[in-house]
Structures are given as structure tokens and as C-alpha cells.
Design goal:
extended
Length: 114
């Protein structure tokens, strides 16, 4: 969908995925995006929930891919130019992944000859 949209606008390189309707060289305003989100919630018959929005979807995307996806691939797939954005904004500590990491560490250590 995004590729078709980019071809239609004839953008080469780093164009906005969601450009402002009145000026394609600028990003869409956060107010218009908020309105889109509220309309989507209404069309999907979803109740309004605090803290559910575009960022929560991006956090879910990061969480789903976190255990097995190298950071460079995650950034590319999510459209982030810098891993710092992923690490400081979207990636959050999670008990399940931390417990899994510690369990895997213990298994590796148990199999190590000293």
C-alpha cells in the first residue's frame, strides 16, 4: 500500500509516508492523524481506550519482532532511521522476554565446561 502511494506521488528517497494533504513536502499534522485514529475506532466499533493509538501499534510491532529480529532489520521494517528511536521510544522492558533471556542464560551456563 505504501509503495503504491509513493509511486503515485512520484517521491524519490525520503518522502513522507503520510504527507500533509495541503503540502506534500511536510508531514501530516498530529491533529489530523488523531482524527483519523478516532474515526477508525468508531468504524471498527472499538471503545475509546486511554493510551491506545499509533504509538501503541508501533510498540506492539517492536514487541512482536523483538526476540528474533536484528535491530537493523527491525528499523528497516518499521521505517525508523535510527535504532535509538526504537530503543528510547518504542522498545519497553517486558517480563516475559526478560525471564526467557535469563532462562536461556542459565541453560547456556549449565552446558558450559569450566
Amino acid at each position: 500500500m505504501f509503495e503504491r502511494s509513493r509511486r503515485k506521488r512520484e517521491v524519490i528517497g525520503d518522502g513522507w509516508i503520510f504527507p500533509a494533504p495541503e503540502d506534500l513536502s511536510k508531514p501530516v499534522s498530529r491533529h489530523l492523524v488523531r482524527n483519523w485514529w478516532q474515526r477508525a475506532e468508531k468504524l471498527a466499533d472499538l471503545p475509546r481506550t486511554a493510551r491506545r493509538g499509533w504509538h501503541s501499534l508501533r510498540r506492539k510491532f517492536v514487541y512482536d519482532l523483538k526476540p528474533d529480529t536484528p535491530m537493523a532489520d527491525l528499523c528497516y521494517l518499521g521505517g525508523w532511521k535510527s535504532p535509538l528511536t526504537v530503543m528510547t521510544v518504542y522498545q519497553q522492558p517486558n517480563q516475559l522476554t526478560m525471564r526467557t533471556a535469563l532462562a536461556n542464560r542459565a541453560e547456556r551456563r549449565a552446558g558450559t565446561v569450566r
